[in-house]
């Protein structure tokens, strides 16, 4: 499952760099695309605005296949309070822009799975694939607008995954 | 003092089954000789390592057996009274869905001739099951590299046509023979050379002797799976395959010896052996939704059992059901 999570994140990260190269953040002193995996970072109280935070939640395995089929849910948490120069009045527009970017990221629908247990990561024999994104309602949190998008990611478990 | 082993027997429970696995063995169509699964092999059966010549077809779903046997009472007198019973008809059918899409499962489920899509020659006319193919390459026997079910020795120059990951068909040229063709498994019936345009590649077009190339060495193709016909023999040639195609229609009915294994959760097991199964439907798919809009497709299949004679008592039968009880269960 870990190879799938890492492969999915890299697909999303490289996709975001292409869709909107200006959506970046500085994390641990390094500038990079504005997308991170919550479980891979330090637990911090500060939420970073205008970036996508990936959170893996549900997991199930279907054994009725030649290879076990894993099914994982990935949530995209994101929020914005608009820009300071516009007094936050553009927060709706900025959230819509992030919605559109996430839709574009998920349109790829599949990615080659890589084995991250070796250096450099090696291509595996199967691909992961995912559903169309499902978007939750906008949550108004004082001057912040929040949304969570959900996608179900599938992959066949190869020997190197288990 | 010696202590004799004591078995604490438990009551026999019905098998609790998680899923069903299917196995294939060929039928010699010329002599209508099936491959028989000896019931004694049921004990100690390893689902992922079936005894030769059985080939693993993977998990199947929606497995359903139906008896077509009708037993009727024979009545006499007034008022009529059933005095005894007779079997009016005997037969059986079985249906399920193959979860794996392979050459074997597609062909068995498809119900007709099943074609390998050979790489076409340049400029060949378009054809639904593939056009005229490019030249085949011969195998080299007796060289430094011995042939095996996963090793196809070839000349270095011929090996240049292949790369790891290719699919290949390995079989003899069609030389005008009539009857069943295909090495290892009778793949099609040729009534006359003209019916297949005397195509020298026809046997390789229908053969079940196909595999994925794992590696190309300086002397041989190394295959990722054994050929169903075993080690390549003299006269066989190799051609690259792009995929598979079946058709609605045709005249051929695939026939195979089938074994279905159900492993119980208590160490018990149930086996259904149909020595002769013939497809009774055309190609179709069964679908199940993973999460919308993703749909998983499997191969829907239905078969009619044909009879064999049990050598023990000469009875004509269609299916054998073998039950291996759970350890320590009373019987």
Task: For this entry, give a set of tags.
heterodimer; A: 162 residues; alpha+beta; STM4215-like; eight-stranded mixed sheet; two-stranded antiparallel sheet; 21% helix; elongated; B: 331 residues; mainly beta; seven-stranded antiparallel sheet; six-stranded antiparallel barrel; 3 helices; globular
Q: Quick summary of this structure?
A:
The complex is a heterodimer of chains A (162) and B (331). Chain A has one domain (2-161): 2-Layer Sandwich (STM4215-like).
How would you sum up this structure, described in words?
The complex is a heterodimer of chains A (162) and B (331). In chain A, helix 1 (2-19) crosses helix 2. Chain A has helices spanning 2-19, 91-106; strands at residues 24-27, 30-33, 35-37, 52-62, 69-80, 110-115, 122-130, 134-135, 139-141, 144-156. Helices cover 21% and strands 41% of the residues of chain A. Chain A has one domain (2-161): 2-Layer Sandwich (STM4215-like). In chain A, a hairpin with a 2-residue loop joins strand 9 and strand 10. By secondary structure, chain A is α+β, with helices and mostly antiparallel strands. Chain B has helices spanning 103-110, 156-159, 202-206; strands spanning 17-26, 55-67, 70-76, 81-89, 92-98, 114-118, 137-138, 151-153, 167-172, 179-181, 188-190, 210-216, 220-223, 236-246, 255-264, 269-279, 284-291, 294-305, 308-309, 316-317, 320-324. With 331 residues, chain B is mostly beta strands. Chains A and B meet through loops of A and strand 2 of B.
- Give the helix level of chain B as a range of percent: under 10%
Order of helices and strands of chain A: HEEEEEHEEEEE
Q: Report mean pLDDT of chain A, rounded to a whole number.
A: 94
Q: Find the structural class of chain A using helix and strand composition.
A: alpha+beta
End-to-end Cα distance of chain B, whole Å, is 32 Å
What would you say the CATH architecture of chain A is?
A: 2-Layer Sandwich
Whole-number radius of gyration of chain B? Answer: 24 Å
């Amino acid at each position: 499952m870990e190879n799938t999570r890492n492969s999915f994140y890299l697909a999303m990260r490289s996709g975001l760099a292409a869709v909107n190269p200006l959506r970046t953040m500085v994390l641990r002193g390094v500038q990079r695309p504005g997308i991170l995996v919550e479980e891979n970072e330090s637990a911090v109280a500060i939420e970073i605005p205008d970036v996508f935070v990936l959170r893996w939640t549900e997991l199930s395995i279907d054994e009725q296949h030649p290879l076990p089929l894993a099914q994982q849910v990935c949530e995209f948490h994101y929020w914005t309070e608009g820009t300071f120069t516009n007094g936050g009045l553009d927060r709706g527009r900025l959230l819509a822009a992030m919605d559109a970017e996430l839709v574009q990221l998920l349109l790829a629908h599949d990615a080659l799975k890589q084995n991250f247990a070796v250096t450099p990561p090696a291509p595996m024999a199967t691909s992961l694939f995912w559903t169309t994104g499902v978007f939750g309602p906008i949550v108004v949190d004082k001057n912040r607008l929040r949304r969570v998008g959900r996608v179900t990611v599938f992959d066949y478990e190869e020997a190197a995954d288990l | 003092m010696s202590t004799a082993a004591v078995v604490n027997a438990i009551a026999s429970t019905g098998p609790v089954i998680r899923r069903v696995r299917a196995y294939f063995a060929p039928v010699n169509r010329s002599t209508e000789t099936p491959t028989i699964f000896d019931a004694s092999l049921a004990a100690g059966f390893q689902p992922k390592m079936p005894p030769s010549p059985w080939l693993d077809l993977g998990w199947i779903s929606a497995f359903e057996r139906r008896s077509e046997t009708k037993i009727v009472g024979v009545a006499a007198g007034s008022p009529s009274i059933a005095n005894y019973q007779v079997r009016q008809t005997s037969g059986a059918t079985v249906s399920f869905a193959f979860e794996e899409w392979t050459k074997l499962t597609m062909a068995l489920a498809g119900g007709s001739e099943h074609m390998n899509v050979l790489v076409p020659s340049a400029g060949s006319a378009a054809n639904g099951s593939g056009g005229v193919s490019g030249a085949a390459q011969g195998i080299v026997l007796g060289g430094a590299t011995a042939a095996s079910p996963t090793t196809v020795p070839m000349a270095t120059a011929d090996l240049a046509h292949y790369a790891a990951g290719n699919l290949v068909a390995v079989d003899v040229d069609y030389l005008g023979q009539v009857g069943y063709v295909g090495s290892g498994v009778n793949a099609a019936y040729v009534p006359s050379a003209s019916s297949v345009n005397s195509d020298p590649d026809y046997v390789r077009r229908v053969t079940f002797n196909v595999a994925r190339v794992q590696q190309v060495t300086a002397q041989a193709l190394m295959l990722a799976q054994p050929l169903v016909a075993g080690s390549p023999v003299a006269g066989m040639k190799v051609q690259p395959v792009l995929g598979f195609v079946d058709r609605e229609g045709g005249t051929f009915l695939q026939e195979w010896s089938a074994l279905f294994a159900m492993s119980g959760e208590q160490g018990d097991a149930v086996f259904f052996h149909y020595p002769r199964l013939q497809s009774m439907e055309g190609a179709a798919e069964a679908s199940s939704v993973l999460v919308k809009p993703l749909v998983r497709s499997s191969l829907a299949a239905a078969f009619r059992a044909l009879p064999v004679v049990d050598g023990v008592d000469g009875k004509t039968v269609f299916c054998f059901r073998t039950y291996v009880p759970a350890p320590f269960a009373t019987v």
